[in-house]
From TrEMBL:
It is a multi-pass membrane protein. This is MFS transporter. Residues 405-429 are annotated as: Disordered. InterPro entries: MFS (IPR011701), MFS_trans_sf (IPR036259).
Length: 429
């Protein structure tokens, strides 16, 4: 990709409406994730087994529905797809307070609700990139992505704390009603948007593909493109390592560092703060260093996660604060740069399929990492287990200067249309 032009100072009103609805929905979802756990633990006496099942229900849709969702989202209008996802998710969330009021709420019902909301999130996220490209100009994509990623990081800071206050004030079950309302606000905002239409490619319009062929086309593009293939593999490896940190960090703070609950919450929030900063500075880093050198520099910066291992009780907790802050800053800034590049590099008719293929690979590593890190923590101790998992993450980051970005200032421009069509039409062998 050539050096980026400075983005227009003001994003279109259509994107501002989209962003507002997405922000409300993200904060509602971040709050509800904690509320469902609180509800299961405090009202329904859920043990570790049920808590694990509840967590798996939220993430498993990426494994089960990721590829089909991408194939569907690439064919359906993105705004309509996202509105339908919001409405279904709102209906599912609203069943929790309804069942609670009638005295029929069960753990199985909570698991079902978590799975439905997670499934809607998969379809919503698959369609989102295509809608963004329809409401902002090409030179504004970096700024738009920056706002979206920064908002997502902010929701991880505010959501859990807000959930605790809501649960204490009106109960966790009634608090979930706020998430249902947030989905409806998102749907209402989307309904107000009039995105620009895209004329379909004539060759693609006459090419009739079956559902399986559409799924295969997305996987094939990722598998055959050296940049997309590398980024997908890197995401899987690094998610495996980072999920180990997420699994063990609370136990590390409480058991190893003897941190009070208030301190534990503040330390964990620092990662979200770093993410907000990274989301806002991502476009600037891309302009300053380049869309290839920037991610390489940020990946090396994210190795600061190893500072967590230096943490000790008392003032030594500051090492963990620094590690989480710098690591999350680098990860989110890198995500802003690479996701913006992908919106221009991948053809519109393949956006959702390529996105969900990469996300499926990345999220598939998370359940396995949770089990592995828990076992390592039991067998070797929490600090040793953290060292192993963070070592896996850092190993992935250190491949960046030697991968396909080696020697480049910027990521490449889109392939020629003929190559794209060939990739899409040819079956994987």
């Amino acid at each position: 990709m050539n050096r980026e032009r400075r983005a227009s100072p003001r994003l279109p009103r259509a994107f501002q409406v989209l962003w507002f609805g997405e922000a409300v929905s993200l904060f509602g979802t971040a709050t509800t994730a904690t509320l469902l756990s609180l509800l299961a633990a405090t009202q329904l006496d859920a043990g570790p087994g049920w808590m694990g099942i509840l967590a798996a229900a939220s993430w498993s849709p990426w494994l089960i529905l990721g590829l089909p969702a991408g194939a569907l989202a690439d064919r359906w209008p993105p705004r309509t797809t996202m509105i339908a996802s919001d409405v279904v998710a709102a209906t599912a969330a609203a069943t929790v307070p309804l069942l609670w009021v009638t005295g029929t709420l069960s753990l199985a019902a909570l698991v079902a609700v978590a799975f439905v909301i997670g499934s809607c999130a998969v379809l919503f996220r698959a369609a989102l990139p295509r809608l963004v490209t329809r409401v902002v100009d090409a030179d504004q994509l970096a700024t738009a992505n920056s706002m979206l990623y920064a908002t997502e990081s902010a929701s991880t800071i505010v959501g859990p704390g807000l959930a605790g206050l809501i649960a204490q004030a009106v109960s966790a079950a009634l608090g979930v009603l706020l998430d249902a309302i947030s989905f409806l606000i998102s749907a209402a905002c989307l309904a107000r948007i009039r995105p620009a239409s895209r004329a379909p490619d004539h060759a693609l319009a006459v090419l009739e593909e079956s559902f399986i062929q559409r799924i295969r086309a997305g996987v094939t593009v990722v598998a055959r493109d050296r940049y997309l293939r590398y980024f997908a593999g890197l995401a899987a490896v690094q998610n495996f390592g980072l999920t180990g940190l997420l699994t063990l960090q609370v136990l590390f703070l409480v058991d190893e560092l003897a941190a009070p609950q208030a301190v534990t919450g503040l330390v964990l929030a620092t990662g979200g703060v770093g993410g907000v900063i990274g989301g806002l500075l991502g476009p600037h880093i891309a302009r300053r260093l380049g869309t290839a050198r920037g991610p390489i520099t940020l990946q090396l910066t994210s190795c600061s996660c190893l500072l967590v291992l230096l943490a000790d009780p008392g003032a030594g907790v500051a090492w963990m604060v620094a590690g989480l802050l710098l690591c999350e800053f680098a990860i989110v800034a890198d995500n802003v740069i690479r996701s913006t590049w992908r919106l221009t590099y991948v053809p519109d008719h393949l956006q959702a399929r390529v996105s969900t293929t990469i996300q499926m690979l990345a999220f598939a590593a998370m359940p396995a990492s949770g089990l592995a890190s828990g076992w390592l923590g039991q067998q070797l101790g929490i600090r040793t287990a953290l060292a192993i998992m963070l070592g896996i993450y850092v190993t992935g980051a250190l491949t960046m200067p030697f991968g396909p970005l080696k020697g480049r200032r910027d990521l490449p421009t889109p392939p020629r249309p003929s190559r794209v069509l060939e990739r899409t039409a040819s079956p994987a062998r």
